[in-house]
Every structure is written in structure tokens, then in C-alpha cells.
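agent> Task received from the user: take the single chain below, predict its 3D structure, and emit C-alpha cells. No templates, no multimer pairing.
agent> Plan: (1) validate residues, (2) run structure prediction, (3) serialize to C-alpha cells, (4) report one or two observations.
agent> Step 1 OK, no nonstandard residues flagged.
tool_call: predict_structure(input=
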Amino acid sequence: MKKVLRSFRVLPWGLLVLALVLTGCQPAAQATPSDVTPAADLPAVVSATGVVVPAQWATLSLAGSGRIAELLVNEGDQVSKDQVLLRLEGSDQLRAALAAAEVEWVAANQNLKTLNDNWEQSRAAAQLRLAQAKDAFDTAEKRRGWKEYRVGNQEQIDIARADLLVAQDRVDKAEDAYSFVEDRAEEDLERAALLSALAAARQARDRAARNLNYLLSLPDDIEVAKADAELEVARAEVEAAQRELDKLKDGPDPDLLSLAEARIKNAEAQRQATQSALDDLELKAPFAGSISRLNVRAQEWIAPGQPVLILADLNNLQVETTDLSEIDVARIREGNLADVTFDALPDARVKGGVVRISPKASEGAGVNYTVVVKLIEIPAGLRWGMTAFVDIELVE
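)
tool_result: status=success, residues=396
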């Protein structure tokens, strides 16, 4: 019967027109100003049915899949923002991987710091290397030049010739001495001593001859090739040392610096990826509220995107209209005041205000628009889903 009475309140202008028509059918003498209520005295309202909903609510799910290792809430629990609601299996391995990524990130940053701190020391070492390389090159170049001439100089050759003449004279004298005893028996001691002296003189002469020939000779192809190779190695070392010094002229080696920075970026990416994978194993509350519905149990396997629970802020309830027509919605503006009553709470009457008007008609029968009315106060016992009746005052 209550709803029938409210439907009459929806059409105050219709009642006024009907009263005016009926008044016009009576004789003019019977009509008085007290018989008709002026239009300004009638409240201009639009009435609609609505439903109580939270100002903020969400159906939560996980991006990954797995078995529920810990279910940390029950239906009706109050939770705070970022509180962990459930956790999937596999977090231990990911925490170990995250710790390894953290260690690599620290090591990469330390490596970069060392490069910057030791830059001047590295430059000094490069300068020393270049100086030593130049000295080695000069020595190799001289050795290679020597291969263009005889092995010995003139003084060494003259001495060697003199040594050979002396050695040959000793051989001649030893041969003359030995010739007097050559026919004696082998067991003769004098013969044996002179033969031994002759052999020694001949060996000394041969050594002197070989030494002279060596000093008079030119280096062979193998020695020249060896000297050439040593010279090229020394030249390459000078060039390498110069390049190293050039790189360190204005700061750390750019190649090593780029490598160190890339190592840091890679470590950071590994750390973020591992942390993201670890976060995917946990479902956290995006805002403070109540667990209004729980769709899973501990040890159950869940799939990506599967609805796990409904979280709602039940401390901030509002009303959304369900049958507001296109004719009535055109007369409403955001900020209009409203009186709200509830089927389940007959003694409750709450003030509210229009905070949002849907730009598009709702799906379903007829052309209806959703208008959101924010309640100034929340009466005791009001719950999500209860039916509400809204009288929205119009500002003409």
C-alpha cells in the first residue's frame, strides 16, 4: 500500500491540472481562491526506485594461476588497503630469486662506482704502459737494424783473426814436436803428451776459425724474421697502449662504463620481473573495505582472472536508481537534494544529494537512466542490495 501512495506523489503536476479542470466545470460563483493550492506551494520532485550499493567495490582476481597456500580472510572481515588476502604456492623460490637479483644489482652498482673512483689511477697505469711500450719498441727497432750488418764489428773481427793466427801457430809447433816421436809406441808417455797437446791446439784453432767466420757473416733469414716479429709486437703494444690512454683521457673507459650501466639495467629488470612474479602470487586489497563474498577455499587451484572475492567499502553506501525514465532524468541536475527511504527500514528517512547522472541508458526493458544519490548519513541496519525509494527535489 506504501508503494501505491508513493506513486501519487510522483505526479503532483497531474493532480494540479486535474483540480483545475474540475474547478473549471463548476459555476464561477462557487470557485474561491481557497479551493485551489497555488503551484508554488507544491514541492516539485521526481520519484524513483533504487538499490543500495557501496560507493566503492570490486571483484578481485589474480593474474597468475596456482594452488592457494594461504587464505588469510573470511567473509565479513574488515581489511585495510594493501593487506594480503591470499597467497599462492611458489613464493619461496621467487623470494630466493629476488634475493639473487638484489645481490647482482648491488654488485653491478659497486662495479660502476669502482670504475668512476679508480679512473685517475687507471689513466696513470695506461700512461706507464705506453711509456714502457715505446721503450720496448725502440729496443726492437735497434735490434732489427743490427740485422742489416755483419754480426761483429771491426774490432771484434781483428781480434778474432789474431786469435786464429796464434792458434794456427800453436798447431804448427805442436805438429813439429809430435813428428819427432810419432813413430814411437803408443804406450810412450812423451809421444802421448805431445799428441794430446796437438789435439788441443787443433781444437783451439777450429774454435777461433768458427768465431771469425761468425763475426764476418750476416744474420740468417730466421734471425731476421724473428727480429721483424719482435718489432711488430712492440709496435702493436704501443698502439694498444695509446688507445687505452685515449679512452681514459676524459673519464672511465666508455666501453667498460657502458657495460657496467647495462649490467645495472639488467639487474634492475631481473629484480622488477621477479618482484612482479612474486606480487602475482599475492592478492592484496586495493582499498579498505569488507570481504562481502568469498568464492574460494584454501588449497584450491585457481586460474588467471578467476573471481576470488568481492571487496566493498560498506562504510560509504549510496543509492543507484533502477527505474528513472528518460523524461524524469532530463529534469534532474547534479547537486539536487533528495529524500531516501527504505523498504527494510520503514522508520529511516535519510537526506542525500545527486552526485552522478549516467550519460547512457541502462540495459533492460524501457529507457531508464541510473542516477547516483550520495547519502548524508548511513542508518543502522542498512545493507548492500536493499531497496530504496528516492524523491529528488527539482530546482525550477
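agent> Step 4: summary for the user.
The chain has nine helices and 16 strands.
agent> Done.
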